[in-house]
Amino acid sequence: MNIKIFLSFGFILISTTVLAQEKRGRARDFGIFTGILKTGSNNAITDVNGVSVGHTTLIKGDSVRTGVTAIVPHAGNLFQEKVPAAIYVGNGFGKSMGLSQIKELGNLETPILLTNTLNAPLVANALLDYMLALPGNENVRSVNAMVGETNDGGLNDIRGRHVKAEDVINALKNAKSGNVEEGNVGAGTGTEALGFKGGIGTSSRVLPKSKGGYTVGVLVQSNFGGVLQINGAPVGRELNNFYLMDKNKPYKADGSCMIIIATDAPLSDRNLERLAKRSYIAFGNVGAFSSNGSGDYAIAFSTYAKNRIFHQAKSATRNIDDLNNDEMSPLFMAVWEATEEALLNSLFMAQDLKGINGREVKALPIKKTLEILKKYKALEQNKLPMALEY
């Protein structure tokens, strides 16, 4: 009886706490628009045809606040039908796995998994088991598992290495297209960014038909420091929450950011690397500066079917389609816009979270933020006249 009463009261207290929090939403739900290009139907990385995303979120007791996120480029056997891919390293303070082979060969042969720093080897091991068990891979003797990470040890018992093989498989098997969960989910469960609760964020952009009509989608795992800016407005400074503001106030500057970029444009790994580099412009736009301990990586891949790399190639040579250099600028704009909005979505969709040692990280206060944006005329910028034709 006492246990039931305790649980009942616990439920009431939890419910009251949730109701007291600000209503969360994506950046553009509050009139915050980034750039001039249109978004895809879901404004997510899954707007790139064939791409799916899955999460496993682990919130247990008072100290487990972590998870894993899977980004799957296509529904087939990715080892047998690899996709062109590239890496851009903004700051190499990271423990990601699989980067060097992608950089060397220019292709991706597993889904991309995101998790926390100390769980990266365990997640890679589970990903290897998953890939080796796929039909058609019975004789495979080498797989390059791609695992990215950020350090969520400020809220999570990171030394416990709580992400297990079944959590990885769950994220992979539940990966889906359409809407993508954001904020305190998957690999973003215990992350923090720019002085506030961080997490998973995503966005997409679609080019006008005159520029190819291609789609660029971005997903981020935000976990880094700086001075938050939104559409040029000094939000972090106005909220009195930013790096170096007070030597006596603890502020998390390190931690890392993973930026995953998908496109259906016909690109070689060379042009995918150029695309990945442009995402870093957006990283700075929101106020990040890549601190010494922030491992910041962009991984870009193309789903364009003709450019897939077959493990059992029938010819000694291959012909691919690759946009001319002069045609890349619209895609550069698209990845810049989508990355910036994905980073903002990770903040706006995150919620207050208390974790290990009772430490709590507050989410970005939306009401106060909107007041600051109004002050600096940084809202509803989509109402400015534009001449883009789709």
TrEMBL record:
<dbReference type="Pfam" id="PF03576">
    <property type="entry name" value="Peptidase_S58"/>
</dbReference>
<dbReference type="InterPro" id="IPR016117">
    <property type="entry name" value="ArgJ-like_dom_sf"/>
</dbReference>
<dbReference type="InterPro" id="IPR005321">
    <property type="entry name" value="Peptidase_S58_DmpA"/>
</dbReference>
<comment type="similarity">
    <text>Belongs to the peptidase S58 family.</text>
</comment>
<protein>
    <submittedName>
        <fullName>P1 family peptidase</fullName>
    </submittedName>
</protein>
